[in-house]
Design brief:
Layout (H helix, E strand, L loop, with lengths): L11 H20 L18 H18 L14 H6 L10 H4 L5 H11 L6 H13 L6 H12 L2
Length: 156
Amino acid sequence: MHLLVTPFKDHGISHMMQDLGRKFVRYINHTYKRTGTLWEGRYKSSLIDSEKYLLICMRYIEMNPDRASMVSHPGEYRWSSYGYNAMGKANTRITNHILYETLGTDIELLQYAYRELFNNHLDKDEIHSIRETLNQELVLGRDAFKEKIEQMTKSK
């Protein structure tokens, strides 16, 4: 499962993941009459340079079911945000990122521009970079962004 989340407060993502884990595991275990954990280990996260990588990461996540041969088009995967981002399907769990909203001046143009992004496949180096960064829980971004984050974390 991949989530692309913008935190609004300190530790917001870790608290969200704890809550999600507790509620979802309880739901699955109750529904399927099972016990135990669902996931191995702790979730992995990476900070991304939104200006450079937000749309790339959105495409990466929404193309995963296609790359895994689960569907032939990202719009066919019911759990994907592609339906919302590209086709306007209702989804109360998604809030538009401000950079996503810069793709168009109205909703139709925005969704059209977003769909157009999928006409070109992600570069294999971009895919590799995203995977490696996430697996190692590093910062994904330009050098200046990484340096800024390093400076911010040194002071804490």
